[in-house]
Write a structure and sequence with these properties.
alpha/beta; about 475 residues; 18 strands; Rossmann fold; four-stranded antiparallel beta sheet; 3 domains; single chain; disordered C terminus
Length: about 475
């Protein structure tokens, strides 16, 4: 009887789940459901989520991203925030052409780009795309439906084949590969969990060691924003050996996430005259700047000039590709050092912005003296970074010569001042002339060797076995 009741209960439970997920206004909710991230990976919790009408969008390694009906509450879940793309001759400005003359063009190096997708038929990019994946709900294709991702990718690796009235658009690392993670929709909006899932996929399932992220959200004062969920994902990727380059943002305010992660390379913008861009975000977490004003590059089916730290970021990502082409064994920290130590100064005529007054939650932004909060280490220099040689420190050792006092003990079977482990069977012969510079003490002979001069030679057979 109990078995029948149990079977009946399970059947009712399954039926209830099917009814809930099939009802109008359920997890699909005509596309108007809310996105949340639950801090759990439990199979039981996932079952309960489905019972409530939610669908699982991404299974992250430390959380579960859900789309639920508007009225459903998931205890402990947090908002799946929406981030936005940061859009608003640079190769010569950052000395990339000098690197090409050394035969370093990014060949064999692939950059994972997290963006709106890529125009897979664009003549500038068609030979450089090694693959990709969509992480958005509405399509399985990583084809670009906005142009932002195509523009970013062109800055990295366009071949420079398109003759136009403005010249040609050649990427900083024209022979590098692009692996596209489509994490943003046609309007340039990008869910937090889609970005996190893409980061996780790159680390777990690809060999690529450069990640370029031209999107962001929020503004964070201070040295970093490591408590932010997306920032923590970036830091994890960096700990796995991936160099993450991210856009600082275009709000003329503090650096956005995920660029403000301590492990990321946060990139601000300058114009073609090396003047700071008026829109570029600032703060202590800013690391470096690069060209980001009126950058000519590929978009869907054609070309256009765009501005923003979104454009600055791929310049730096591509320089990292050049650095790895020249020095493939470098670590993330070594790459950062090469970038920061060789960066060029900004134009001293730059106008910089910062917080001039703060009262409670209110900030007043105004003109301030330019500092590293505005430009980080300076303007990225491809040639300098590729040729960077770390400074080595030479240590001088002073050798003091002393005379060893030969002590008795252990009968005749010891050598004073002999090298540890030396055969001292014939001490009178082997140890002659070997006391100079040795510490005072006893060295056991025969079948036993004391580990140090300070050991008790009287107990050599015991101490040295």
């Amino acid at each position: 009887m109990k078995n029948k009741i149990l079977i009946l209960g399970i059947a009712v439970l399954i039926l209830a789940m099917l009814l809930v997920t099939a009802m109008p206004g359920n997890s699909e909710d005509n596309g108007k459901g809310k996105r949340v991230i639950a801090d759990t990976t439990s199979s039981i919790d996932k079952f309960i989520f489905r019972m409530k009408g939610c669908t699982i969008v991404h299974e992250l390694n430390d959380a579960t991203a859900l789309k639920c009906p508007a009225g459903v509450q998931i205890e402990g879940a947090f908002e799946d925030k929406v981030y936005h793309i940061t859009d608003m001759d640079a190769n010569v400005q950052i000395n990339a052409d000098d690197v090409w003359s050394l035969s370093y063009t990014g060949e064999g190096v692939t950059v994972a780009v997290l963006d709106t997708g890529i125009d897979t038929d664009h003549p500038e990019l068609v030979g450089d795309i090694v693959g990709g994946q969509s992480f958005v709900e509405y399509t399985t294709s990583y084809e670009d439906d906005h142009s932002h991702g195509t523009h970013v990718s062109g800055i990295i690796t366009a071949d420079g084949v398109g003759g136009t009235p403005l010249g040609y658009a050649k990427g900083v690392a024209p022979d590098a590969g692009i692996w596209m993670a489509k994490v943003c929709d046609s309007g340039g909006s990008c869910y937090l969990s889609d970005i996190a899932a893409a980061i996780q996929h790159v680390v777990y399932n690809t060999p690529y060691k450069i990640m370029s992220i031209s999107l962001g959200g929020g503004n964070f004062a201070g040295e970093n924003c490591d408590g932010d969920y997306l920032a923590s994902k970036v830091n994890w990727a960096v700990s796995e050996g991936v160099t993450v380059v991210a856009a600082a943002g275009n709000d003329r305010f503090y650096v956005s996430s995920p660029a403000c992660a301590s492990g990321a390379i946060a990139v601000g913008a300058v114009d073609k005259n090396s003047l700071m861009a008026s829109f570029s975000n600032f703060g202590t977490s800013l690391d470096i700047v690069a060209p980001g004003v009126s950058i000519y590059s590929s978009i869907i089916d054609r070309y256009d000039s765009w501005s923003g730290t979104s454009m600055s970021t791929p310049h730096v990502s591509a320089v990292v590709a050049l650095v790895l082409d020249a020095n493939p064994s470098l670590t993330v920290d070594e790459i950062k050092t090469a970038l920061y130590e060789t960066a060029d100064p900004i134009n001293p005529d730059s106008v910089c912005y910062g917080v001039v007054k703060k009262a409670g939650p209110n900030y007043w932004i105004g003109v301030v003296p330019c500092s590293s909060d505005n430009y980080g280490a300076g303007i990225v220099d491809a040639y300098g970074a590729v040729n960077y040689v770390p400074t080595t420190t030479t240590t001088t050792t002073t050798i003091i010569t002393t005379t060893t006092t030969i002590l008795g003990g252990c009968g005749d079977e010891y050598c004073a001042g002999a090298d540890i482990g030396e055969d001292c069977t014939t001490c009178s012969v082997d140890c002659i002339g070997k006391t100079t510079g040795k510490p005072s003490g006893r060295y056991c002979c025969g079948n036993y060797v004391c580990e140090s001069a300070g050991e008790n030679a009287d107990n050599c057979p015991v101490d040295c076995v």
